[in-house]
Amino acid sequence: MSDYAFDTLQIHAAADPDPATGAVQVPIYQTTSYAFKDADHAARLFNLEEVGFIYSRLTNPTVMKLAERVAALEGAAGGVTCSSGHAAQIMALFPLMGPGLNIVASTRLYGGSITQFSHTIKRFGWSCTFVDFDDLDALEAAVDENTRAIFCESISNPGGYITDLPAVAKLADKVGLPLIVDNTLATPYLCRPIEHGATLVVHSLTKYMTGNGTVTGGCVVDSGKFDWSASGKFPSLSEPEPAYHGLKFHEALGPMAFTFHSIAVGLRDLGMTMNPQGAHYTLMGIETLSLRMDKHNANAKAIAEWLEKDPRIDYVTYAGLESSPWHERMKTVSPKGAGGLFTVAVKGGYDACVKLVNNLKLFSHVANLGDARSLIIHSASTTHRQLTEAQQIAAGAAPNVVRLSIGIENADDLIADLDQALSAATS
């Protein structure tokens, strides 16, 4: 399958006809459990001596097909789906971390991710250092003997900034650490982080991958290229696992070690399982991903160009603009376009932002992004509310800024809606 173009893979990857019925769409296996052939079969499954289905907290045929399709689109060896993008981040870190260990993450992240890394992971005994990833010297200096991963977004939320993935991956390789990339905003259609050197890729499948605001889900896929045994820093993957009678995941499973550990240990104990109905909706969404992303790109570029020229706007952060400091980087990291999300600084500050949000008719005021419909939110008072003012500014969520997630409606209609709302906001 890997020889096919993206447009073909998004429909045909992991989509063999159902063996029982011949159904060409992946069936929804709405079940909690699966009958064993006999007692020996059950024992082999529980010992990881045979691959199969035990209980839907671990694996489910519908959910498994979704993980396989995302892995195929990302060029990954394997993957695991889970209940949300936030769950995917914990799933990615879980096999790598332990009490007293840390990660180094970009300052340009979704506000919820910054909160998760600043506060919640401390309850596991983990910690995070935030660094401007455009400063590679500072990034390298932040890595210490207890660092176990480097984390960034390919295209950042909310500003739409492009991370220099090849440079960051080169540094991660130099210090012997896995690079984890959140590819939610780019999707594998615009950017495939593994091709730039990433080890793990996480997604909030809730966003562009599903594309219609109906599902919460997440996914982690693994390049299969990282040597988990070389440094001795990742004992969960390289050392004997007591619960499986001394199985060494990396030694036994090679490039699939991370994926199998995430299922057999991660989903077993964390229980961050995606439901089969949600997986079905996401599979349906992925079939049109390239078509939708092309439209998101075209609309966002047209609207960003219009806004950039508008005297009521201070600045626009869209990397698809030739004036953007990330435009040249986009050509390497995300050559098909900068995606559908960016921020706009409105003259008049916070009060003007509030009036803009309240006067729009086509844009929905919601905390989601990547929907078929256009969305708007004031990040500093919502998605990035738990951050300090300095963190908000570093992330691209200043008080005078609104985040736009451009949908697939008619661009002229969206521009007209923004025009009338800006008039109300700045009059």
TrEMBL record:
Keywords attached to this entry: Pyridoxal phosphate, Transferase
Gene3D superfamilies: Aspartate Aminotransferase, domain 1, Type I PLP-dependent aspartate aminotransferase-like (Major domain)
Pfam families xref list: Cys_Met_Meta_PP (PF01053)
Coiled coil: none
Protein name, as recorded: O-acetylhomoserine aminocarboxypropyltransferase
Family per similarity comment: Belongs to the trans-sulfuration enzymes family.
Presence of the UniProt keyword Transferase in the record: yes
Highest taxon, organism lineage: Bacteria
Keyword Acetylation listed: no
